[in-house]
Specification:
single chain; alpha/beta; Rossmann fold; DHBP synthase; 10-stranded mixed β-sheet; 16 helices; EC 2.1.1.297; HemK-like; transferase; SAM-dependent_MTases_sf
Length: about 500
Amino acid sequence: MSSPRGAIKQGAYVLAEAGVASPTPDARELMEAVVGDLFSAPSKLSASQEEEYFTLIGKRASRVPLQYLTGKMYFRRRTLKALPGVFVVRPETEMVAEEAIQAARAVAVKAKYRPGCVRVVDLCTGSGAIAGAVADEIPSARVWAVEKDSKAVELARANLEDLSVNLIQGDATSADTLAALDGSVDVVVSNPPYVPAGQVSQAEALYDPEMALYGGGEDGLAVPLQIIKRARVLLRPGGTLVMEHAESQSQKLRAACREAGFVEVSTGRDLAGRQRYVLARLPRIGAMSIYSAPEASEPLKAAVADGELVVIPTDTVYGIGADPRSSRAVEKLLAAKNRSGQMPPPILLAKPEQWRLVASTMSPKMEALAKAFWPGALTLILPAGEGLGWDSQAKGGTVAVRVPGLDAARVLLEGTGPLAVTSANIHGDDPAQNVSDAVKYFGDTVAVYVDAGSTPGPVPSTIVAEEGEHMRILRQGVIPASDLARVWESA
C-alpha cells in the first residue's frame, strides 16, 4: 500500500500529465478528502482508501471540478459546500464581493452599524457565496439572496444556514421578485449568467450548469441587461450596483448603466488585470445643480471656492474642473476620472496674462506663441508656480496652461479664476459633448453643471514645450506646426 505522501506524488504526476493547472495542491486536497487532516493520517493507505483516492484523481484528470470531488469550496474567509450541478464560484468573484461589501460598509458606518441599517440584495446568488460573504463581514446588514434553480437554492440554503440571509427562490429579473423592496436597497450585487454562446474556455466549466453560465444571445448580455433594469428599480437614490461580466462586455454594460440612469459608472478589474465587473451608482436627490451659461457664474464660483467639482463647456467638449490650488479638489477630480495618482490636468485661464497665477516664468518665445494663438487651441507647458494643489516637482516641475477660445468658457473663468480642467468622461470612454452625457458620467459627484448646448467634438489642442532654445510639439492638434514654427523663429 502507498503512503499518503507517495500517493500524492503519484496523483500530482497524473494531474500534471493531464494538463491540470495546479496538480500538487489538487492532489493534496483530494487526499484530505479521503483521509482527513494529513498530519493525523495513517502512514499507509488501506486498499479502499487507495482505490478511492486514485478514482478521484482520475475524475480530476478528466476535468471534473475539484470542488465537486471534495464537496467544498472557499470564498473569502468562508468554507462553502459544493454540489455537482451547481455553479462553482470562482476566485475572481471575490473582487465583486469586495466592492459590494465596501459599498455596504460605507452605509453602515454612517449609521454606526445599527442592526438592519444597510440593505443588500444578491441577484443570481447560486451557491450563496456573495450573499454569505456580505452577511458574514457586515453582521448589521439585512441581506436578501435570489436564485431560480432549485438545486442551487438547496445548496445556498446549506451555505447560509448560520447567517441572517433571506433566501428567495425566484426569477432575479422579474419585477415581482422582491417588489416590496423597490426603491429601498442600498447595494445590489450580482454574478449573473453572462458567458457568450460557445465561449467557455476552461474544461472544468463544461461541468457547470448551462443556466448559470450562458447569459443569452450571442453576446451573453440578455440576462445582465435585465439585471441592470431590475437593480435600477430596487435601489434607493445613491444606491450602488456591482455586477460581474465577461471582459468583452464592459463597454456595452457601462453604456447600459448610463442609459438606465446610473452615474459614476466604471469597470473594475480582477487580480489578473482583466475587466471583470461594472460598478455604478444612482444619483442622490438634490445633490447637484444644472445652470444655463448666463446664470451659472455665481453658483459656479461658490462651488469652486468650496472645493467642489464643476462641469463647463470648452472649445470642443465639456470639461470637468476643480480649483488647481486645492489638493483635495484635484484629488477628487482625478478620482472622478478614474485617474488617481496620474498627472494633473491642464489649467484653463480667462486671460493670457493670468499665466502668472499658476506658472513661474514664460520665455519670450513662449510668450510670442501665447500672444499669437491665445485664446485658442494651444496648450503651453510652463515651469510650475507655487501654491498648486499637487507636488509640482514630483510631477515634472511643469504645468499645462491654455486660454480657451470659447467666449462662454472665458466668461465663466473670469468668476472662478484658473481651473484645472480635463475632458468630462470616465477614463477610456468618449468625452461628453453635452450636459446630459456629463451627468451620466459623474452624477452628483459634480456640484454644478453649466449647460451651453452641444459642443463641436473632441478636436485636440496643440501642446508645446520648450527645450533649451528649441520648440517641441508634444501633441499635434489643430494649429499647424508651420504656423507655430514661424512665430517661434521670429520671436
